[in-house]
Design a protein that fits this description.
This protein is α+β, with helices and mostly antiparallel strands. It is built from eleven helices and 13 strands. A six-stranded mixed sheet has the order 5-4-6-3-1-13, sandwiched between helices. A hairpin with a 5-residue loop joins strand 10 and strand 11. Helix 4 runs antiparallel to helix 5. The protein binds alpha-D-galactopyranose.
C-alpha cells in the first residue's frame, strides 16, 4: 500500500482516492511556451501524490505530509494564502468553483518526491495531481487540457507566476519513452519516440534557488510582449513572437538593446526546436546536443536567465568525454542542467561533474537519472 494512502487511513479513518502526477524535463524550447512557440517536454518518474476523499461538510482540509503542515478553510473562503504549497491546491479548487463545477468539502494529503526548486516543475505536478483528483472525486468530467489550464491559472492567480502551459501539459499528457512536441498556440501535439538509444539524459542539480526567479520570469514575459507590440506597429499580423522573423526583430527593435536580445533568443529558439525534432526522429543525438548548447548560450547571453553555477556546470560538462549536449533547463536562475551523455560513459560523467562542481560551489550536486513516464493517473490505493 502507498504510504500516502496509509497516512490518509490513519488520519481520516477512510479509504482515499489516490492520484500521481509527474514532474518534467524539457529537452528544448525554453521560454517559448508563453510566446506561443514550440516546446519538447517529457514527464519523468518523480511524482506528486494526492490522496483525497469527500467530507460531509464544506470544509477543505489540506495536509502536506513531507512538511508536516496542515491548513484548513471552507469552500466559500478559498483565497491565496502565505504558505506556498497550499496555493497550488486552493488555486485549482478555485478554478473548478468559478467554472461552475460543484465541489464539496474534502480532505487531502499531499506528498511529493520531486525536488523543489530544481526546475522539474514540482509545483505544476502538485496542481495537476490536485486537479486530476478533484475532477475524479467530484465527477466533473473536465478534459485533460482544461485541467492543465486550471493548474496554470492556479499558478497565475494564487502563486503570482505568469507561467506558460508547458509544465502542466507535460504533467498531464506525458507518455512513457516519448517526448511531447507541443505547439503552444494551437495546442496541437505529437509524441516523438525517444530513439536516443546509447544516450542517457542526466540532470545535475546546481542546488541554487534564486529568490528573484519569479519576478525575473514575469519581467521576461512582459519584455517579450513589449517587443511584440513594437513589431506589430509595422507588421500588424505579428501577434506573438511565434509570428516574428529575425529580420523583423532586428529592424523594429534596433534601438532597444534589451528587447532585441530577449526577442532574438525566442525567435531563434523556435527555429531550433523545429530542427531538433528532425534530429530526434533520425536519432541524430550529436546534432541535437549541439542545439542544446546553442540554447544554453542564448539563455545565458540573450535572455539572461542563467547564473554562474549553471554556466559552470555546462562549461564543464561539454568538455567531458561522451557529452553530446548540456544546458540549463526550465525558468532559470538555478535548478538543474540537462545533459545528454553516452550511456557507457554516464558513471564517469557523474563522477567528474560532481567532483568539479564540489570544488567550485563547495557542495556536492544532486544527480537525477530519470525515466520518461506517463502523465497523471489514478493509482489503485
Ligand atoms: C517555467 C514555466 C514554464 C516555461 C519554463 C521556461 O518552467 O513554468 O511555463 O515558461 O519556465 O521554458
Amino acid at each position: 500500500m502507498h504510504a500516502v494512502t496509509e497516512l490518509f487511513r490513519q488520519t481520516f479513518n477512510e479509504e482515499p482516492l489516490l492520484v500521481q502526477s509527474p514532474g518534467r524535463i524539457n529537452l528544448l524550447g525554453e521560454h517559448t511556451d508563453y510566446n506561443e512557440g514550440f516546446v519538447l517536454p517529457a514527464a519523468i518518474d518523480k511524482f506528486a501524490y494526492v490522496a483525497i476523499q469527500k467530507r460531509p461538510d464544506d470544509r477543505v482540509v489540506l495536509i502536506a505530509s513531507d512538511l508536516n503542515e496542515k491548513f484548513e478553510t471552507t469552500l466559500r473562503d478559498i483565497q491565496p494564502v502565505k504558505s506556498g504549497w497550499c496555493n497550488y491546491i486552493l488555486g485549482v479548487a478555485y478554478q473548478f468553483i468559478s467554472g461552475g463545477y460543484q465541489l464539496g468539502g474534502f480532505n487531502l494529503i499531499l506528498s511529493s518526491n520531486i525536488p523543489v526548486g530544481a526546475g522539474l516543475s514540482s509545483s505544476a505536478a502538485v496542481s495537476c495531481a490536485s486537479a486530476y483528483a478533484m475532477n475524479t472525486l467530484f465527477h466533473c468530467g473536465v478534459d485533460r487540457l482544461t485541467l492543465a489550464r486550471f493548474a496554470q491559472a492556479a499558478e497565475h492567480t494564487f502563486a503570482g507566476v505568469q507561467c506558460g502551459i508547458m509544465d502542466q501539459f507535460a504533467s498531464l499528457f506525458g507518455k512513457a519513452n516519448h517526448v511531447i512536441r507541443l505547439d503552444c498556440r494551437s495546442m496541437d501535439y505529437e509524441y516523438v519516440p525517444l530513439l536516443s538509444s546509447g544516450y542517457e539524459w542526466i540532470l545535475v542539480d546546481s542546488g541554487v534557488k534564486h529568490s528573484l526567479a519569479a519576478s525575473e520570469y514575469n519581467q521576461r514575459r512582459s519584455e517579450c510582449m513589449k517587443g511584440v507590440d513594437r513589431i506589430a506597429q509595422k507588421y500588424p499580423y505579428v501577434k506573438s513572437l511565434r509570428d516574428a522573423s529575425l529580420q523583423q526583430v532586428n529592424e523594429c527593435l534596433a534601438e532597444d538593446e534589451i528587447l532585441n536580445r530577449r526577442c532574438r533568443y525566442v525567435v531563434e529558439e523556435n527555429v531550433r526546436v523545429t530542427e531538433a525534432c528532425q534530429d530526434l526522429l533520425k536519432g541524430d543525438m550529436l546534432s541535437f546536443g549541439k542545439k542544446m548548447i546553442q540554447t544554453h548560450r542564448g539563455l545565458q547571453h540573450l535572455y539572461e536567465v542563467s547564473c554562474a553555477e549553471l554556466d559552470f556546470l555546462v562549461d564543464t560538462a561539454i568538455n567531458l568525454h561522451g557529452v553530446a549536449g548540456s544546458r540549463m533547463m526550465g525558468g532559470g536562475f538555478g535548478g538543474c542542467t540537462l545533459n545528454l551523455v553516452e550511456a557507457g560513459l554516464a558513471e564517469q560523467f557523474i563522477h567528474q561533474i560532481s567532483e568539479a562542481y564540489s570544488r567550485f560551489a563547495k557542495k556536492e550536486p544532486a544527480i537525477y537519472r530519470v525515466k520518461i513516464t506517463d502523465g497523471a493517473k489514478q493509482l489503485v490505493s
